[in-house]
Amino acid sequence: MAGKSLNKVTLIGHLGKDPELSYTASGIAVAKFSMATSERWKDDGGNLQERTEWHNIVAWRKLAEICGQYLKKGSKVYLEGRLQTRNWDDKNTGIKRYITEIIADDLIMLDSKGGGGSADAGGGESSYEPPPPIDTGSGQVKDDLPF
Question: CATH for 9-40+49-117?
Fold first, then answer.
């Protein structure tokens, strides 16, 4: 079937852990982290219900470095990317394993103080500086506004 297709994911959620930043043998930055999204609703009995989905996120190059520098567990972010499934053979069991990840293309930090949002420990005026705009390599620079 020839024709147009689309693989696009848009999420707003919170990081489940600090990003793990590493570099490939050729020096390319890669950051991996989990992200939670939740939905809430009232059931037939009027009780509030909540379901949380966990997503595996992978960011590459400059975006990976920005994630490693500015994001922390609990950070709220807007993320755009695409789904990708990888597979490998488990060396211990011989079983084929699969993982579906979201490859991040764009990211906007939604926390009011960036990253983990920690307060200035000095008791004086906050030394917070907003993070720089995110250049994803596509020639477009994203600011930190979600609209």
Answer: 2.40.50.140
